[in-house]
Amino acid sequence: MKIKLGIVCLTRQTFDYQTAGKIYQDIREKLERRLDLSLVAVPDTIETATQAEQAGKMFHREQVDCVAIISGTFHLGHLVLEIKKWCDAPLLLWGLPELPYDGGKIRLNSVCGVNLNASNLVKSGINDFVYHIGEDIDENFLDAVRIIAALKSAKIGLLGSHAHGFFNVGMDQLKAYKKFGVGIEHFELEEVFKYPFLNEEKDLFLKLIKENFENKEHKNAEKVAELSAKLKFFMDNHALSGLAIRCWPEFAEGFGIAPCASMSLVQSLGYILACEGDIDCAITMIAHKAVGAETPFMADISQADIKENTALMWHCGVAPCNLKDSECTLDDYHAGGKGMTAGFVLKKGFVDMTRLDSISGEYRLFHERGEAVRMPKLLTGSYAKVRFENSLKDVLDKVIYSGVAHHVSVVYGDYTRAFEIFCRLKDIKVL
C-alpha cells in the first residue's frame, strides 16, 4: 500500500552539519525514486524551533501518514516536540551511523540525538514512535504505517451477523472505529441473494473453476460462479475493503448453496472475505494485505499434535484457490449437499498466523510463525499442515487461556516485526 512519508533532518552547527546535509540529500533522492511512497520532504536541514514548527505545520497540511525525523547530528531537544505538536503522526526517530573521526572530534553524535528525542517524548507521555539506527529507512516501520493507513481508510461490510453461537467473534464496532478508524456497514443476507451480477464476471468465474477445479463439471458449478459474480459486484459497488459473511446456517437454504467455494474464487482475485461474520479477522486480513501479503485466508488451529509440534490450519473450504498445492475439488459435503466448498491442500512455505482480537473493547495481537509442509489430500476443506516455530503447547496455552477467538489470518511470509511496531504505535498488547 502506498503511504505518504514526511521526512526532516535535524542538525546543530557545533557538529559536522554539512556532511549530515549531504547524507540527508542522498536519503531523500533514494526515497523519491520509490513508487510505494509519496514523499513530503523539508528540503534543507533544520536547527531552530521556528523551522521545526514550520516543518510540523507542513506535514499536517500535507496529511502525511508518518514522519521520519533524522538526527543528522546532535541537536536541540525542542525540535522534535515542535514537529509532533503540529503533526500528530507516528514517528521514526532515525539515527545515522557515526562517521570516522576527523581530528579527534565526534562528527555527528546522531544516536545521542535519538536518545534525547525519545526521552523528551516519553516524558511528555508520547509513545507512538520507534527508533532506528542505519543508513536506510526502517522498512518494518513503513509496513506498520501501511497497516495503520489501510485500516483508517477501510470500509468493511458485515453480511448478516456472526454465525450461530459464535459470540466470541462479536466485537464493538465503535471501539474498532476509535482504535483504527475502520468503518463497518451492515447488510442483510437477502441483499446478496437478490443482488444483480454481470454475465461477463460470471463467465470469468466459470473460467476460474475450469482452471482450478478437477471436477469442473459439478452440477452446482454455475451456481458457484453466479454467487462469485454477485459477491464481487456487491463489494465493488459498495467500495468495500472486506466483507464478513454469516455463511451459515441460513445461507445454503436461502441461496441454494453455501458461499465457501465462491468466497475461495473471489479471494483468489485479491478480495478480502471472512467467514462466520468475523469482522476482527477481516481487519487482520486487511492488515496483512496492506504489507504486501498475497491473498490472506482464514483458518482454525485444528488437529493439534503436541508431540510432532504440528497442527492443521483448516477451514471448511474457503481459502483462495490460487494457493493450492495440487488437486482442488468442488465439494458438497455439508448442508445437505448444498455445501459447495473448495477442497485442497495449501502449498508449502513459511507462514505468518495473526489475529487482531478484541476483548471488552480492547485489542491485543496473537501472532505465531511456522512452516506449511507437504501432505496428501485426505480431508474435505482447505488446509495446511503447519510445523510451529514455537512450542505448540505454549501456543495453545496462549490461545486458550487468553480467550483468543478461533480464527486467524494466515499468509505466506514473515511480517512479525511490522506487526510488533504497529502494536507499539497503536498501544496494543502483544500476547
The CATH topology of the largest domain turns out to be L-fucose Isomerase, Chain A, domain 2
- Judging from the principal axes of the Cα atoms, what is the shape? elongated
CATH superfamily of the largest domain: L-fucose Isomerase, Chain A, domain 2
CATH architecture of the largest domain: 3-Layer(aba) Sandwich
Low-confidence stretches: none
If you had to describe this structure to a student in words, what would you say it looks like?
- This protein has 431 residues and is of the alpha/beta class.
- It has 2 domains: 3-137, 3-Layer(aba) Sandwich (Rossmann fold); 150-430, 3-Layer(aba) Sandwich (L-fucose Isomerase, Chain A, domain 2), CATH 3.40.275.10.
- 37% of the residues lie in helices and 26% in strands.
- The chain has a 6-stranded antiparallel barrel with strand order 10-11-16-15-14-17.
- The longest helix has 17 residues, at 221-237.
- It is elongated and about 80 Å long.
